[in-house]
């Protein structure tokens, strides 16, 4: 018993020390968000759920955009009971399904689910798949969910964001990670058709490398978007919440084995942050007055604003432009945009008439895009 209690005490002491170290400096902003509206993707669990709770507790209107509506409804009920804020809403959004993305955006413009303003969009949803799979457009699921869907959603909502009053600041937050620092976008295999790693008995789909590529693509888009939105009321920030205990790894095959599953649980306990702590840098990026006038920056897990992004490829204008053009084509962006306008009884946009000079001068959506 003495050995057992001593071992438990030692382990708990190590856990407490690591937990305190990973927590970062204390941060609990007392900011009233009444009247403001935030969209959180992947809000039914993990950081997205905790972020929705933090925003609702400060009286904000929160739109929980989730693929699994039943899970969202259950999470929403708990948030409302905890915060006493009934302005928390579940909306169906599957980022890998581009029709679902357009339908979600359309309902924010018109009908009973329309909103009068959007103060922030937090691109939090992400997936890590064990095997290669594609959506109905033939795009690999991780790339579609972690990046392409966010690209399309941002573009479809940009009109609404730019229509906001000049004194109304809007934040677009991309949740990312510093694991992208040693990656490089491979345009020859962007769809991960040849991402294979060697195994002990047979070769496997390299899910971790593909995940990193999808997050690098997202960061590349965020960097380019921040450049194009200079001079507007919209701020784009990328936030790294640090290694966090979420359900991101639940689809991996290692969870099928007892030993590896428990090893990962121990790793999670000692070397990752809880969502309650990981959400702090996200809240800082989203609502803190210190970040009102900061654009195109990377915020790390301890709320440090880094002007230098973790991957030098993000500074390459040609790479950013190539990814942008590829994303427009793969998401069928122009078709979805004009379908959205058709549903709103607005005239279709003629993309062929946009000149370089008008793009440079225009503060409209079409010029910026």
TrEMBL record:
SUPFAM superfamilies: NAD(P)-binding Rossmann-fold domains (SSF51735)
GO molecular function: oxidoreductase activity
UniProt KW Transport keyword: no
InterPro entries: NAD(P)-bd_dom_sf, SDR_fam
Keywords, sorted A to Z: Oxidoreductase
Sequence intervals crossing the membrane: none
Keyword Kinase among UniProt keywords: no
Domain of life: Eukaryota
Organism: Acrobeloides nanus
UniProt protein name: Uncharacterized protein
């Amino acid at each position: 018993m003495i050995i057992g209690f001593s071992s438990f005490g030692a382990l708990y002491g190590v856990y407490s020390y690591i937990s305190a170290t990973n927590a970062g400096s204390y941060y609990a902003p007392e900011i009233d968000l009444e009247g403001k509206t935030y969209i959180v993707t992947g809000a039914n669990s993990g950081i997205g759920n905790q972020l929705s709770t933090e925003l609702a507790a400060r009286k904000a209107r929160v739109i929980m955009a989730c693929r699994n509506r039943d899970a969202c409804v259950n999470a929403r009920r708990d948030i409302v009971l905890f915060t006493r804020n009934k302005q928390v809403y579940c909306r169906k959004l599957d980022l890998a399904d581009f029709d679902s993305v357009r339908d979600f955006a359309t309902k924010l413009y018109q009908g009973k689910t329309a909103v009068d303003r959007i103060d922030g969009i937090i691109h939090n949803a992400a997936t890590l798949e064990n095997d290669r799979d594609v959506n109905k457009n033939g795009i690999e699921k991780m790339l579609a969910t972690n990046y392409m869907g966010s690209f399309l959603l941002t573009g479809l909502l940009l009109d609404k964001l730019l229509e906001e009053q000049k004194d109304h600041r809007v934040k677009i937050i991309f949740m990312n990670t510093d694991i992208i620092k040693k990656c490089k976008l491979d345009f020859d295999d962007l769809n991960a058709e040849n991402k294979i790693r060697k195994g002990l008995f047979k070769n496997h789909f390299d899910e971790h490398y593909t995940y990193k590529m999808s997050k690098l693509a997202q960061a590349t888009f965020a960097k380019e978007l921040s450049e194009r939105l200079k001079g507007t009321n919209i701020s784009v920030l990328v936030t790294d919440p640090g290694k966090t205990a979420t359900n991101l790894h639940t689809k991996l095959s290692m969870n099928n084995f007892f030993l590896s599953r428990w090893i990962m649980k121990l790793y999670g306990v000692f070397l990752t942050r809880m969502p309650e702590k990981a959400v702090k840098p996200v809240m800082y990026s989203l609502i803190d007055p210190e970040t009102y006038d900061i654009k195109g920056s990377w915020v790390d897990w301890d709320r440090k604003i880094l002007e230098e992004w973790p991957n030098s490829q993000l500074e390459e204008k040609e790479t950013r432009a190539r990814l942008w053009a590829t994303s427009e084509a793969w998401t069928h962006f122009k078709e979805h945009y004009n379908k959205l306008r058709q549903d709103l009884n607005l005239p279709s946009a003629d993309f062929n008439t946009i000149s370089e000079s008008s793009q440079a001068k225009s503060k409209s959506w079409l010029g910026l895009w």
